[in-house]
Amino acid sequence: MTAYLQELFQLRLFKPKQGRYARQWTLIAIGVVLASGAWSLRNWLEGEGFGDNVSIGVPLAFLAVTGWAAFRLIQFPKFAEFLIAVEAEMGKVSWPTQNELFKASGVVIFVIFGLAALLFLYDWILKWVLSGQMLTDIAGLFG
User: Fold this and answer.
1) What's the pLDDT score for residue 1?
2) How far apart are CA 40 and CA 110, in angstroms?
3) Is the pTM of this model over 0.70?
4) DSSP summary character for residue 131
């Protein structure tokens, strides 16, 4: 934790040319979460009857402080190295064509519906056996 606190107050960028897209999208995702939290805080403060200065100023201060912390997080050497490695690995992935994607999705959907039907059948048989209706039906056959 002390290493992050030291890193929090520095201005330098760690390997700025590497892992650029992974860092940008990570920062955007963190920013969306923080903005949502600031918006919720603003709504709560307004609902509690705080004035406009407080209901706008506190969420903006929260957003500024946590935004800076998020920006510094993606510059933290261990985390930045991880994001650089993620981007490098994503470049090695062989992505399917659109046709392959549709075929694979069709197989998955077919298997899901098949398993759902099988589970429905098992459930129906088990309910029939445990309800006692099975004994009545069998007695009616011989009876």
Assistant:
1) 66
2) 41
3) no
4) T
In the chain the beta strands, taken as DSSP E runs, fall at none
Q: For the packed helices 52-73 and 20-47, what is the interaxial angle rounded to 10 degrees?
A: 160
- The mean pLDDT value for 88-113 works out to 94
Q: Which of 13, 140, 142 has the alpha carbon at shortest distance from 71?
A: 13
CA distance linking residue 55 with residue 62, whole number of Å: 11
Query: What span, in angstroms and rounded, lies between the C-alpha atoms of 20 and 100?
Result: 29
Q: What sign does the CA torsion over 27, 32, 33, 36 have?
A: positive
How many CB atoms lie under 10 A from the CB of residue 18? 15
CA distance 73 to 27: 9
Give the pLDDT band of residue 137 (cuts 50, 70, 90). confident
Place of tokens 């398993």: 115
Tokens found for residue 90: 């994503």
